[in-house]
Amino acid sequence: MVKKHIFKTMTMAGLCAMLAMPVQAAEPAQPTEHHHDNAISGFIDYGELQKELQRIEANSKGSVSVDVAGQSFEGRDIYTATVGTGDKVLLIQSEIHGNEKTGTVAILNMLKSLSGNSKAAKALRDEVTIVFMPMMNPDASEGDKRRNSMTWSDVVADYPELAAATPSWNYLDRGVSQSYDYGANPGFDVNRDFNPDLDYVPQAEDFPGASNEPGWFITKEAQVSRDVYKSLQAEYGTVDVFIDLHHQGMYYVDGTPDPVTLSLSAQFVPDPSSAEGAKYSEYADQYDYDFSRQLNVAAYEELQSYGNSKFTNISLYSQGLDLPGTALGSYALNGSGTVLFEVRGQTQSLGQKEKGQLVKSVERGLTAIVEGVADDSVYSLDPEDYEDIPLTSYSPSSN
To answer: One GO molecular function term (predicted)?
Structure first.
């Protein structure tokens, strides 16, 4: 049975309308929000997720604990699934954008593997504690869309002091794209609602904000992720690794005609000890870019090991970004090693055609990171190897 779990502040029991651009580099264009070129029926919907988590927990003989961390705006439960009892803590979340579903399937597959009776699975569970959040934005998942279903009026109802504030830059309440009417169905990009100050309380003067400024924790979904993160900090002292699973557009490995299968990244804010990152100087002592790069190298080398196959079409997501309002940027500043996975295309644009390949790419990359953290081998990797990973290109090379 799925159990209710109340996350307290310091304990754990049991672009479409971008108003400003970062100085270092423009934020990559956000993918089309809603299209139906292919069916998505083969991916996991909310009801199926609930049943599958219950099944995995029941079959795990106590090695997997499924809990409710909180609720979405529309009141759907947001789940965590925890496996392992080790001191090294990894938090892995998927589907903060509801039309980016591949990571959810990969997480469920990993839970089955990690909860098994094999000697390798038991050894991993002794070394690491992994907390999966397989569907961060269930309202958007059910609505087959990128954004949540919260309106600015709903925000003001929760925070009356924001009544005179300009709506945040990540709120969309106008326009029609691919037959999706945002005027009738407004919402927030939840992955721009994070703040490095995990105790931040919304202030009217901080709105509308911009992509290179922190978010506000005004959405229910971002609040749940933050509360899980804080509870792990309180219990373990730190969250060693944070991984966020996404989809991207149709891009290419720089200098080649090869479509990208998976983009990785370790960089979401400038180094707080640098001149460019001076505004984050209070986080300099805990920010660990080298560790983030090592984690990315672990995933890259694993996928490259498959030789001449689509698994080798791996690139670096846009670099030089300043995105403190993302979960990755905020948690990196709080001391976590961070990894972004961006698989090829949106769920609907590929449908069943490449589902298996993309899911397997995510699984293999994640497994390499988990194993590298568990046996400490990740720490022996040269972080400078990260700089040799080819960049993502927006068009194929003619060479």
So the answer is: zinc ion binding
